Amino acid sequence: MALVGRRDGRNFGYGRQLRYAGRQALEDLFAGGHFATAKAHGDRWQAFVRWCRSEDGPGYNDARQIDRQTLNDYVAYLRQQIHQGTLCIATAQNRLSSVNRTLAALRGDQDVRIVSPSQALGQQRSTVRTQAPDGQDHQQVQRVLHTLTEQRRERVAAIVMLARATGMRLREAILADLPRLQREAVHLGRINIQDGTKGGRSGAYAPRWIIATEQVNAALQLARDASPRHSRNLLACDESYATFLQLTVLPARETLHGHGLKGFHDLRAAYACERYEQLTGHAAPVNGGHCYRIDRGLDQQARQLISLELGHNRIDVVSEYIGGRA
């Protein structure tokens, strides 16, 4: 347990510093697991703590001082950030949700929380992509791969290529059964993404087939070459997923940012945009295409197939990757 003092003490027993206390409470809440989720909540909690300690904030360093009025003041601050254009609605809602989650972990109850972050901010978030994703330029991706290889980060380079070539999520690329995928590519001409998927979407009842193009085969070969000895995926036999994320993947994000890539999710969106153009003959809406006006049926078919390939099975989610219909 991360609890370091009496439960009724400063920061509910989680230490003297508000930032540290929130992080420790989250570690307790997730019992050392769900590393990426805990880190995301922790980063957003730190943003709240910075506001608390700023001139605009209440100056608190003890979670026991935080009440509903404190949260209402934080909501007002976030609203101002949105109005000034320095913060998007989705980020603000995520920050409020993480403050709710962390406070509940600290307090052991939900007595102090924002009931509805979206209503509190007075605005609904939109998941429709309006900005073209990074990573659509293959030369840009190749430069990233070259730099990562020079840095001896071959496994991260493999993740980048798998995400761009197949639309895999980060977790899917790391846990992909590489020997099986290569066999399927050779014998079937397509691969079935089944490992590390979200929401239990795996097995025979959730097939997710991707055509094994030259780019896909090259990505699989790069991943096999980078895979540690005696491993079927990108993890070493004695390495946990969380450790690999923390020590190998996260430090490499600076390299991605240095080459103009926001992150791995944009590579997945770049794959979706490319597939849309292949399927319709038109650029994706976020790239200025208007197939949905010219042939709505073709646009619908393309979105349906891309939805299946991305592992969502919901056509409306595709707008997050390729843009909506104006």
Automatic annotation (TrEMBL):
Pfam families: Integrase_1. The keyword DNA-binding applies. Keywords: DNA recombination, DNA-binding. SUPFAM superfamilies: DNA breaking-rejoining enzymes. Residues 128-274 form the Integrase catalytic domain. Residues 118-137 are annotated as: Disordered. Residues 118-130 have a biased composition (Polar residues). InterPro entries: DNA_brk_join_enz, Integrase-like_cat_sf, Integrase_catalytic_putative, Integrase_recombinase_N. It comes from the Bacteria. This is Integrase domain-containing protein. The lineage of its organism: Bacteria, Pseudomonadati, Pseudomonadota, Gammaproteobacteria, Pseudomonadales.
